[in-house]
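tool=predict chain=A
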Amino acid sequence: MPDTRPAPPEQDPIRWSLALTLVFAALVFWHLGIPSKIYFDEVHYVPAARKLLALLPANPEHPLVGKEAIAAAIALFGDHPLVWRLPSAIMGTLGFFAFSRALWFASGRRFATLAGGVLLLTDFSWFVESRIAMLDMVMAGFGMIALWQVAAVVRLSGAERLAITRARLALAGLCLGLAMGAKWSILPVWALLGVGFVVLRVRPFSLRPGQESFRHCLEATDAAPVRGITLIEGLFWLGTLPFLTYWLTFLPFLFYHQSALRPLDIIAWQREMVTLQASVTRPHPYQSVWWQWMLNWRAIWYLYEKVDGGLRGILLVGNPFTMLAGLPAWGWCLWAGLRRQRGEALALALLYAFSLGLWAVNGKPVQFYYHYLLPAAFLMGCLALALDALWRHPGRWRWVGPNTLAMGALWLAVGLFAGFFPIISGMQLGNDWNSFEAWMWLRGWR
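tool=predict ok
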């Protein structure tokens, strides 16, 4: 007679997650000050941070948090290339660990959690964006911390003290506001968290018509997705608090020496930011669109020149294997979420679809592969869950086992990361201007 007892809970792999985080941090901080000059979009954000320190307006089309972080680093440690990149490096590292913790709390699966860490470390994009003074990694890092806290309260609410649950939700709301204050790319994640909380709370009461049911839905605390929290309180932590935090990030505007705003002007300024972003219509040689990001078709050369003693290159492109393998994994997660009631699989599939869909529908004239940073991370989560399912497959195949395939996929990701490392990390490539040819697998990468 088969054993129908539920499997015991798996051991939290937090130590291995910390070890992977340390490896990632070591790679990110290695020669972080090279190139010792402004490169690619640092040309916009480093001067903007300098002007922010002088309370002068600059780069008005984007919110302030990313530039505030660079400015704070300069004020504390000096105006140097390594210092410019510290906020991205720190938030990239914190966001990497947060991604791993979010995956653990969402799935409760040890192999999926560690596989997700390996996949994010080797997806190229998270590494490259953690080493450049841009806004994207500050946004993504805060966003991952928020997702970590939300995943934790969904799993642990009822088991933890209510004060800890509220503290986690407060931290999630604060980080969502700071993420929005760095870049608006996090907006689909914010919307999905809010809508998801409402849907999961309302659904059990939707079959009970009447005013009494509606009142009970608003006042209930012993209900999904977060025990101990009413619907109104949940919307405050995940809706109102992020908005208030976002508004507070604009306070420097009130003290500018030129073009200062009044407090209520900050609300009207949001429309001006939209107009400014839509006004950038001049074609760029590295611009691309969402479906090209999915296919890993169009890369961006952040740097390719002789600097710091030799020829160096930094190419923003996705891991050639995992970015494509993640697409069928996304389909599997969508299926597993809808047919097998795998909530974590459905959540990752929706996070990918919503965060990518923003760029498919927003109409911004000029877009770039770095906008795929968040969707690519969620895609790595989907691939981790799919590999975990393969790892757990009970069957035995003739030539190779599921475990071998799952581990082989991870080793292939690591191998490609190692092979591309010189061209994504700014290593010295020698003096031959054709050195880049070894990595140009597709015409769109040139």
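The mean pLDDT is 92. The CA atoms of residues 331 and 349 lie 8 Å apart.
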